Amino acid sequence: MSIRGKAYIAGIYEHPRRDIPDRTLSQIHAEVAVGALADAGLTLADVDAYFCDATVPGFGGMSMAEYLGLKLSYIDSTETGGSSYLAHVGHAAAAIAAGKCSVALVTLAGKPRQRGRGGPGGMGGEGPPEGSFEGMWGLFGAPYNYALAARRHMYEFGTTSEQLAEIKVAASIHAQHNPHAFLQNVVTVEEVLASPMISDPLHRLDCCVITDGGGAVVVVSPEIARELDRPERAIKILGHGESVKHTNNGRVDLTYTGARWSGPRAFEEAGVTQADIDYASIYDSFTITVLETIEDLGFCEKGEGGRFVLDGALVAPHGKLPFNTDGGGLCNNHPANRGGMTKILEAVRQLRHEAHPAVQVPDCSIALAHGTGGSLSTRMGSATLILGQGDA
Amino acid sequence: MADEKQLPAYPPNVTVENEEFWKAAADGRFLLKRCDADGCGTVIWYPRSLCPECGSFDTSWFEASGKGTIYTYTIVHKGQGPWAEHVPYVTAYVELEEGPRVMTNIVGVDPADVAVGMAVEVVFQDAGDGAAIYRFRPAIP
Q: Are B49 and A69 a contacting pair at CB < 8 A?
């Protein structure tokens, strides 16, 4: 397979100005975006993929996606300097060829002439476009922001702190078997509720650990996989979905995550359903992250997550939905404050039947791994992978 | 809570896209942007030159009511820096009468009495350098 003939450049736009002190960097991105789309006879509403470099204002490509109001099934902020945009076109063509998206927007903007003119320096950035309206309300990182989502979920669906605590308890039951886990002690619901309140309604034990470390994954072609020394340990990628959820022009809804969109995309591509999932790695920066994600991935109805997680539903090997058998971010590891890598790794261990025997799901043949980045309360990137054994 | 000490406030990050908002805030007025494109009329938050609903750059400012209700909130028990001495304090999303949900602090009330759905109104607080930022307090009926 190649990209040859699978994608076309339909619109272009070059900003007409060469000295732009009276625009923010976000505005220039917006002007070239709208200009190129107009050249193609398309609008922002048609865009389902966004590509940008690391100089865009804000958090990866997510702040610009929010500014532009994009609804994305694909995002890529590969940074290779001046060659980035050519790489982006190549990546966009591959994504379109693979059916991941159909209208990809690539933007570049900068204001290097404004450096030292009393305006912001560097790449001409003013900080994130949303930055003038966030960041001054006394929220010091993720727990505070996720507490906003937890409160709203409680208000709408009657979810309780005890139900959230069940998620931490399940993770701790798994972590006791992981000699590398940062926290290896089993905790109770009462202990979670008795831990210090950080940002009401989230307690310290509703939060993931802070750990150094990392992880890596190698992905190969089927041809290479067949030639490996132990080809049976190669895990097949069955499906993938992604999305960006943002504050949606001030209409943010904190009761769901981007998994609402990334999950169905992954299930559809994999050709499997929730009932086929033997094991799930669910992003667990906080207990509320797990609860909302389980609902959004369709393992239960929206609002039912609090009841779903009771009675050991998440506990391996015999729960309804064994999750995070390494102890997850809540107990084991959340390296670099980013838990997505470890979610993939434990799913692969489960599919290889190399998880700890106490938590290995019998006959595990299809697994799901889900990542959440950013914040449940503002803008987030969501990605879902469905993986299977080599013969799946 | 008449003796409540004001939460930390610093001059906002003013850009060419939002300076009208912050000028008005210093005068005690809460502005919003609306899309003026035919058939759109969307109220925009956070303020920007583009309407993220329809993609038009034809947007303009208007003065909002400054009233809304609490959509969600958290009571912060572990603050940092100058905020630490103010715990517990309340950070929230307020749903404005005009539609947008904006992040802010709730002041002038015991955090234990704050609730989702509570009616609130804007109050401007001195942020230094002649600037002011918006916070919300329980609405006076």
A: no
